[in-house]
Design goal:
Layout: H1 3-18, H2 28-47
Amino acid sequence: MDPDGQYQLIRELLELEFGPLYVTPPDIDQSVKQLSFTISEGIHQAVFP
């Protein structure tokens, strides 16, 4: 089986079990934490000047 055929087979088998999969950067948790903090501080400063 050629590489494209292998990819399609694996994709079809995994999608039934796991749904669509996404690859994220290794530091996604830290990025989300920093972004949520920045947003919360902006809201806080807008509400309590």
